[in-house]
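Please review the protein record below. Let me know how this chain folds according to its tokens.
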Amino acid sequence: MIKLINTEAKMNKIEKIILIILFGSIWGAAELFGGDLFRAWQIPNKSSLLFAIALIIMYSSKSLVNINGSTVIMALIAGAFKTVSDNFYGCQVAAITIDAVIFEFFYFALKTKLYRNFLTRLITAPLLTYIAFAFFAFFATYILRQENWYAGGLTGIGEYLISGALYAAVYSLAAIQIGFYLGAAFKPLREKLTNQSAVFSFRLTAAAIALLIWIVGLQS
């Protein structure tokens, strides 16, 4: 099990804020460049692959920023990043925000079991995936009334849930494990912030990476 409590005090609010911005920026870059790349290569079910990447980022980030709602803030940052894309649609921001909200619900309810039990992760990943995809489908169709979704109605939602959602659920089985082990690899970083020099270097490096991501994104 990854013990989060023992090292929590070694990161103050500034480090956590910087990390939330960094992870949100990485998520946004993955959505922007990953989406464009999958589209250019004509890779099917790109939303399913992007969800898997998002799940890796959300779960691994919790080992460093174990704050309720942190991934929702990351999603909003990622959504802001996506606005620079030539293929931007408002429903995309809704999608990743819904993903984060559903993830936060499951993480809050099952946090300890997720870290302790491989089987719990294996069951939770496709379940939260299907709920997130279903919630988004109904939201886009009947709340946003986005043209393509609204025209498809319940039939379109059903097709979405047996195609894109199904692929995403399969990908999530691997994604949640990758996020778990990546988070375990991140954990020692928190324990190294024991002096002002290390803290300053960490802040500078993380902020510089986030800034670089945004510069590249804005110029793309």
About this structure: Residues 12-219 form one domain. The radius of gyration is 18 Å. The chain has nine helices and no strands. Residues 1-9 have pLDDT under 50 and may be disordered.
